[in-house]
Specification:
Elements: H1 2-9, E1 12-16, H2 20-23, H3 32-51, E2 57-61, H4 90-100, H5 112-117, H6 124-132
Parallel strand pairs: 1-2
Helix pairs in contact: 4-6
Amino acid sequence: SIFKQLRKRAPCLLFIDEIDSVGKRRSDGSSSVENDSANTLNELLTQLDGLGSSAGIVIIGATNRIDVLDPALVRAGRFDLHITVPAPDQMARERILLVSARDVEIAPDVDFATVARGTPGFSGADLATLVNE
């Protein structure tokens, strides 16, 4: 399992992107998909509890949907520290657009400063999608 590998390689860090895909709030449903999801979540919770604070393993989970996470996943001792990353400001949006456009053919008259001004609230992923479109 991944947790056995983590223990062997400690100290280390595990980053779980889109943790809501395995950590959604459990329902009373009985479909096989819901059962598989609940089993996966239960295994994750068990492994987290077995790590202990001296294991030398840091686990970070990222999500855009903290509201759908199972309460057991975000209780004390598990994913209990929440850091909200705000949408990028205008300067950061311009930089993200420039980085996203590095390998994309862009018309010479595109002004990324203007595009950045017109995209408040866009995430980095939104801006990359905009460039690709």
